[in-house]
């Protein structure tokens, strides 16, 4: 991680342009602004005054108007979508920061541990072969069949990669990287084969799932994914100081009393839970886990006490902003969210790299 100085636990803040408090305040403000903007935009636009009235009605501070179109649109469709966007962005941003801290490499991405490719393969298996292999699954799981299988697939592949990375009772990050590359390639090959044997309808369903969308967000899914991401964020934020120490080297971290192996296991578990839950519910939303930690690090320095929560906040704001563009630029149709995150994120990322390249 050349060029990036890492703050010692408890060390005085010296790197970056913004103080930790300012960076987190700015991140929180971005999420609030993105929520306010996204609440009013869409195929059915809601004026700010109407939105305020709906919010007052929802909390019982104004006469109820449950049949009003703007009330029905906001409460039943837009609000669960926005909250799913916050959960998805926070989970992906936090997972990206954890992986970059664990691998001590700013190019690390949550996809390295296979959770996205495993979820994609399991989702495609469910779409193409689910009715043949598990005919009782729809009756047992109902509309949760695809989500459950995708979540389970992500966890299984992550466990496989983690197991392959074990040597002499320790987790070797180099082995994990190589195992991740190999297993991801195998999962993509399986996904390609399923695309080849699928019918036109199945192929369309697979592609729509792979491109990612918040369009299927429902209150039940928001509650489940939001709860998992909240737990993951709580556990992940507790790893800030151990990751600061590991950035100096695993041997040095062990000398400082940091439980290195436990930190690795917990970071992988948190990433698998957060990305698995988000991917299972929304499909693959790329680039957030890679770009959000970079931007936070560039403006606020490498201290994980800021990078972890800052990446979660910035990830949430980015997903909300991308979703607004996805559902308004060609309305009433909707562009895939995963495509938008790449189109929006890559140019901004490159612009910031150019501006701050001396710090990277």
Structural account:
By secondary structure, the protein is mainly alpha-helical. The chain is about 70% helix and about 0% strand. It has helices at about 20-40, 50-60, 70-105, 115-135, 135-140, 145-165, 175-195, 200-210, 220-235, 240-245, 250-255, 260-280, 290-300, 305-330, 335-355, and strands at about 165, 170. A two-stranded antiparallel ribbon has the order 1-2. The longest helix has about 35 residues, at about 70-105. The chain starts with 19 loop residues before the first helix and ends in a 5-residue tail after the last helix. Mean pLDDT is about 85; it is low at about 1-15.
Rg from Cα: 21 Å
- Molecular shape: globular
Question: If you average the pLDDT, what whole number results?
Answer: 86
Widest sheet: strand ordering: 1-2
**Total number of β-strand segments?**
2
Query: Percent of residues in helical segments?
Result: over 70%
Question: What is the beta-strand fraction?
Answer: under 5%
CA-CA gap between termini: 8 Å
Q: What sequence of helices (H) and strands (E) makes up the elements? A: HHHHHHEEHHHHHHHHH
Largest sheet: 2 strands, antiparallel
Q: By helix and strand content, what is the structural category?
A: mainly alpha
State the low-pLDDT regions, or none: 1-13
Oligomer: single chain
- What is the overall number of helices? 15
Topology:
Layout: H1 20-40, H2 48-58, H3 69-103, H4 115-133, H5 137-141, H6 145-164, E1 166-167, E2 170-171, H7 173-197, H8 200-211, H9 219-237, H10 240-246, H11 250-255, H12 260-282, H13 288-300, H14 304-328, H15 337-355
Antiparallel strand pairs: 1-2
């Amino acid at each position: 991680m050349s060029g990036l100085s890492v703050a010692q636990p408890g060390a005085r803040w010296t790197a970056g342009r913004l103080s930790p408090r300012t960076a987190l305040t700015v991140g929180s403000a971005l999420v609030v602004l993105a929520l306010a903007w996204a609440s009013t935009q869409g195929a059915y636009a809601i004026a700010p005054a109407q939105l305020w009235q709906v919010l007052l009605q929802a909390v019982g501070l104004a006469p109820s108007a449950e049949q009003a179109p703007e009330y029905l649109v906001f409460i039943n469709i837009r609000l669960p979508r926005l909250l799913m966007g916050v959960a998805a962005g926070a989970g992906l941003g936090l997972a990206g920061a954890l992986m970059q801290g664990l691998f001590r490499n700013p190019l690390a991405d949550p996809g390295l541990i296979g959770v996205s490719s495993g979820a994609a393969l399991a989702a495609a298996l469910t779409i193409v072969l689910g009715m043949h292999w598990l005919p009782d699954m729809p009756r047992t799981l109902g509309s949760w069949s695809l989500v459950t299988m995708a979540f389970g697939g992500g966890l299984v592949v992550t466990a496989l990669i983690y197991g392959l990375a074990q040597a002499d009772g320790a987790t070797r990050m180099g082995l994990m990287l190589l195992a991740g590359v190999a297993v991801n390639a195998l999962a993509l090959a399986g996904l390609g084969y399923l695309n080849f044997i699928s019918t036109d309808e199945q192929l369309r369903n697979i592609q729509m799932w792979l491109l990612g969308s918040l369009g299927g967000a429902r209150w039940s899914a928001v509650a489940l994914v939001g709860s998992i991401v909240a737990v993951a964020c709580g556990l992940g934020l507790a790893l800030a100081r151990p990751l600061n120490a590991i950035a100096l080297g695993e041997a040095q971290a062990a000398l400082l009393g940091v439980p290195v192996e436990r930190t690795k296991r917990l970071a992988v578990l948190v990433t698998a839970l957060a990305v698995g839950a988000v991917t299972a519910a929304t499909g693959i939303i790329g680039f957030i886990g890679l770009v959000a930690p970079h931007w936070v690090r560039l403006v606020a320095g490498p201290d994980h006490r800021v990078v972890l929560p800052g990446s979660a906040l910035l990830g949430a704001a980015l997903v909300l902003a991308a979703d607004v563009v996805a559902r308004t630029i060609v309305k009433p149709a909707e562009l895939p969210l995963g495509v938008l995150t790449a189109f929006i994120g890559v140019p901004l990322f490159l612009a910031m790299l150019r501006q701050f390249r001396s710090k990277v």
